[in-house]
Amino acid sequence: MYMILIAVAIGMFIAYRIQYSRTGRSWMAIRDDETVAKATGINTFAYKLLALAIGAAFAGLGGAIFASRGQFTGPEDHIMMVSINVLCLVIVGGMGSLPGIILGSFVLKGLPEILRGVQNYRLLAFGALLVIMMIMRPTGLWPTKRPALEKEFAEESVVESASQNGRQK
Length: 169
Prior knowledge:
Distance between the termini: 66 Å
Shape: globular
Number of domains: 2
């Protein structure tokens, strides 16, 4: 258990540091609009390859911990529902938000226990919750914040446009 908690803490630290670095800003630019990112001089191929390598490293670490904890791993441990649950964690928590993903994992790990009384309709209730979540809060329970530089620029442009409108009158 301690090894899992330490690995999660290290992973979150690395992800947080990357998110607010030059690499993270490049990834956000590629995610938002790849053509514009290329036009601004970002080597999209290299950054995509780096994302793949870092993701594979985290997946390998997680797989090693999973296999060492259970002493065995086989195809029955990796069914399609596991992948769907991981995707739902991100959707419910908030894409790009580390605290949101943790909150989403607590919600979705506790939800099956709450729905144990309606065992036959658990997947139906789970799907309905996801649909409601996408309609009511499409950014997730804990959405990601905009980067600070972007926020300052947006606030400055609002102030400048307000002052220009005042001068025009």
